[in-house]
Amino acid sequence: MLDWEHIFATRSSRMKASEIRELLKLLEQPDIISFAGGIPDPALFPDEEFKQAYSDIFSGPQVNAALQYSVSEGYKPLRDWLAGEMGKIGIECTAENVFIVSGSQQGLDYLGKLFLSPKDTALVTWPTYLGALSAFNAYEPNYDQLNPGGNRTPATYRDNAAKLGGSVKFAYLSADFSNPTGETVDLEGRKKLLELADELDIAVIEDAAYQSLRYDGEPVPPIMSLDIARSGGIEKTRTIYCGSFSKTLAPGLRVGWIVASTPVIRKLVLMKQAADLHSSTINQLAIEHVASRGFDKQVAKVKAAYSARRDAMLAALEKYMPEGTRWTKPEGGMFIWLTLPEGMDGAALLAKSIATEKVAFVPGRAFYADGSGANTLRISFSCANEAMIEEGMKRLGRLIAAAQVNELTNETIAAI
Amino acid sequence: MLDWEHIFATRSSRMKASEIRELLKLLEQPDIISFAGGIPDPALFPDEEFKQAYSDIFSGPQVNAALQYSVSEGYKPLRDWLAGEMGKIGIECTAENVFIVSGSQQGLDYLGKLFLSPKDTALVTWPTYLGALSAFNAYEPNYDQLNPGGNRTPATYRDNAAKLGGSVKFAYLSADFSNPTGETVDLEGRKKLLELADELDIAVIEDAAYQSLRYDGEPVPPIMSLDIARSGGIEKTRTIYCGSFSKTLAPGLRVGWIVASTPVIRKLVLMKQAADLHSSTINQLAIEHVASRGFDKQVAKVKAAYSARRDAMLAALEKYMPEGTRWTKPEGGMFIWLTLPEGMDGAALLAKSIATEKVAFVPGRAFYADGSGANTLRISFSCANEAMIEEGMKRLGRLIAAAQVNELTNETIAAI
Q1: Rounded Cα–Cα distance for residues B72 and B265 (Å)
Q2: pLDDT tier for residue A412 given thresholds of 50, 70 and 90
Q3: For residue B254, which residues of chain A lie inside 8 Å, CB to CB?
Q4: Average pLDDT over residues B300-326
Q5: Per the structure, how many domains does chain A have?
Q6: Same structural domain, B323 and B243
Q7: Distance from chain centroid for Cα A11
Q8: Residue A132's domain spans which residues?
């Protein structure tokens, strides 16, 4: 076998197996109750609507166009529809500001490619979406900790980045019911983030993957809408908005979108032309078909189901978690974030769980760019039914309580 | 508006509009006879077969899986089918050696990302596929001229690359009916290329986009099959094979594949996981459905149509081209490559053509990594009917003849 490593690019050393995906393979045993995946519940897919969409495409005049190459910026009627939707949430724009990607994950990859030279710095929250770290890692950046609403001075960010040999290029965050914590950044935090971005002269990447999945509480305006309101129009914004159909319609078609000022969109279009020409034509047509006919109804269906599961999980956590365990109370999305008693390790807990309680979750450390967060874990309620949630939280509570006892015992032993 | 340029990564300066794509926009005027595009004829798409495929998916037990997230390496039944197909052309492999990409263009992007650090050198033919140059450019390489069958010593490649601050990483070529020339590298050339790759210890990227579209002549074994035959198995090869369904089934689904030894495949899977998770699940199922039921029949249909068009174009070239113009005689594919009389410029000729003869083609210079090739041009016969070909070649011949006269006149004037 050849020694490939020495001819791979330096960036390839940062391409590692995602802990979550590797875990998911292990957790396919039938006797495990899993809250590990953050995937949508397939029972909620609008499969009849998609069936109709593909059937109509093949029976209509668009069939040849659907199977042919198409433009890199994306299918115009879909971009028009999206521009209209964006307008409803305060993001006034036209199709010229909308760019179709093969899932919003591709959007993150392209934005890393567009902004990050090796040694540049990306600001991300501690913890953040693991897939964003994976996408950005390919471009060999450093990370610094973003704390929306916090008071760290711009100078400290600038100095840190310079010491590491580059400059700060963007702040990335999921501001609504984020993966992994389920938390939402409040209005004040969003405004302070935009001020920080102004002072650093960087882009803000708003990952809105879960934004339309709010179950209660008051909506907070998207960061991009605040940026438009203060700057006077989308062409003057520094925010780049990443949207996804994966949590509302279906992920298997790989269709997402980016909204930004036209200089950014033009670069992204050139990048896509070189990287994969365009996203699947037929799938863009199918998404436009389904979304334009019943997006709101589908979102309402998904929200009703997930909202009930979130309620059930919060109730079960209250019932079963031992003292010393804290968790978030998300107003939307798919995730709850647990903080274990200090000193406890989420990865060790999962190993124990697979052997004993057979309940699965994702240890939190992978979501931290600095490798901290050992005593955290992510649980998802999106694919769970109430019986699973009840039984699963009971087991998880028992597992944590037992680990606490063991930990104390070990500490006691160590102290002797 | 913000000054975005100063926060874009250095690589973004090499992302420029593709000359071909920009041209295609101009050439959509209805009175132009175009041989510019290299796209498949939509009249040949197996649309009934695809209609059946999507219909079966939505009526069967796979519907939820088709709309859900799936594994980064690709749909296993499709990879199995491809492994079988590869075996038929001397590329013995298993599904573990097959990786699904969103079109073979994405394969080229990923291979650039995997191998090229800034300042490394990629070997490409002069001319080469423009899309390969665009994909690789994002990784800021240098290029050196690959001449399969030529006698340049490995040392000169190594020295050139070192002078430019990197090393040679791979040789990229389309060996069968290449885009843009239509030419095929013979057995001797392929063997010498593998020897050169051995001496340089680099990868060979075999772009097989047109390989199954042979209309006559004897098939030459794929480079990868020669590599397997001499090295004793796919795990010992240095060749990476890129396949496409875009020229045989349909491009709009964005499904292609890569075949390589497992260390390469494993890295590519990690890269895809970080970059876009996976290619469209439903489209992979649809491609597998159509390909496994009638790939050979569809290929035969496409070949019969394109073969007749190639014959018509070669006959018309013979009839109408003025002396001093040369062209290739491809045994397959979609393209013929014209060399104009010395001193004539393909881009200037196109500008004249749009004003006078209204026949469109692609000036050849864009296909040269060094910007040479001004007196060349590419014409495609894939979407042309016989009347178009007859009329188009008549006009093109007249255009070249007139340009020759003008050129002589100008020269004469200059000599006075």
Answers
A1: 11
A2: low
A3: 102, 276-281
A4: 98
A5: 2
A6: no
A7: 23
A8: 47-295
List, in sequence order, every residue forming a beta bridge with A332; answer none if it has no partner.
Answer: A214
Q: Is B371 left (phi over 0), alpha (psi -120 to 50) or beta?
A: left
**A284 and A389 together in one domain:** no
Asked if the model's pLDDT at residue A47 lies above 80, the reply is yes
Looking at residue A140, its amino acid is E
Cβ–Cβ < 8 Å for B138, B111: no
Q: Kindly determine whether residue B68 and residue A42, on different chains, have CB atoms separated by under 8 Å.
A: yes
Mutate to test the interface with B, among A277, A287, A290 (most CBs of B within 10 A): A277
CATH number at residue B406: 3.90.1150.10
Pair (B55, B40) in one structural domain:
no
Is residue B158 less than 8 Å (CB to CB) from chain A? Answer: no
Residue of A nearest to B120 (CA): A9
Residues 217-246 of A with CB under 8 A from B: 235-238, 246
What confidence category does residue A21 fall into, taking pLDDT thresholds of 50, 70 and 90? Answer: low
Whole-angstrom distance, CA of residue B122 vs CA of residue B110: 14
Same domain, A343 and A247: no
A408 pLDDT above the threshold of 60: no
Mean pLDDT (chain A) is 94
What's the pLDDT score for residue A415? 54
Q: What mean pLDDT do residues A218-236 have?
A: 97
Q: Chain B within 8 Å of A248 (Cβ-Cβ)? A: no
Across B54-74, average pLDDT: 96
**Looking at residue A18, what is its pLDDT?**
62
Q: How far apart are CA A200 and CA B56, in angstroms?
A: 54
**Dihedrals φ, ψ of B135, to 5°?**
-65, -45
Amino acid A24: pLDDT? 59
Average pLDDT over residues B119-127: 98
The lowest-confidence range among A29-33, B128-132, B201-205, B258-262 is: A29-33
pLDDT band per the 50, 70, 90 thresholds, residue B22: low
Q: What is the CATH number of the domain that holds A155?
A: 3.40.640.10
Q: Does A42 touch chain B (CB under 8 A)?
A: yes
Scanning A137-156 for CB atoms below 8 A from B yields 137-139
Domain boundary among B248, B275, B295: B295
Both B352 and B275 in a single domain? Answer: no
How crowded is residue A238: how many other Cβ atoms within 10 Å of its Cβ?
Answer: 24
Residue A360: CB atoms within 10 A of its CB come to: 23
Assign A61 to helix, strand or coil: coil
Q: What is the pLDDT of residue B29?
A: 74
Report the complex ipTM.
0.95
B109 and B244, same domain (yes or no) = yes
Structural domain includes residue B117: yes
Mutate to test the interface with B, among A18, A57, A67 (most CBs of B within 10 A): A67
Nearest CA-CA distance, residue A409 and chain B, Å: 41
Residue of A nearest to B40 (CA): A68
CA of B127 vs chain A CAs: smallest distance (Å): 17
Global pTM value:
0.95
Task: Write down which residue in B235, B267, B295 finishes a domain.
Answer: B295
Among the residue ranges A84-93, A299-308, B274-283, B404-413, the one predicted with the least confidence is B404-413
Is the Cβ of B17 closer than 8 Å to some Cβ of chain A?
Answer: yes
**Is there a contact between A105 and B276 if contact means CB atoms under 8 Å apart?**
yes
Which of B2, B109, B252 is nearest residue A68 as measured by Cβ atoms? B252
Q: With respect to residue B2, please indicate whether it lies within any of the assigned structural domains.
A: no
Name the residue among A73, A108, A301 with its Cα closest to residue A203: A108
- Cβ–Cβ gap B280/A276 under 8 Å: no
Name chain A contacts of B43, Cβ cutoff 8 Å. 64
- Looking at residue A26, its pLDDT comes to 65
Q: How far apart are CA B176 and CA B213, in angstroms?
A: 9
Mean pLDDT value of segment A191-208: 97
A window 292-311, beta carbon within 8 A of B: none
pLDDT on residue A409:
56
| Alpha-carbon gap, residue B5 to B134, rounded angstroms | 19
Does residue A338 sit in the same domain as residue A251? no
Domain co-membership, B177 together with B92: yes
Distance (Å) from the alpha carbon of B291 to chain A's nearest alpha carbon: 15
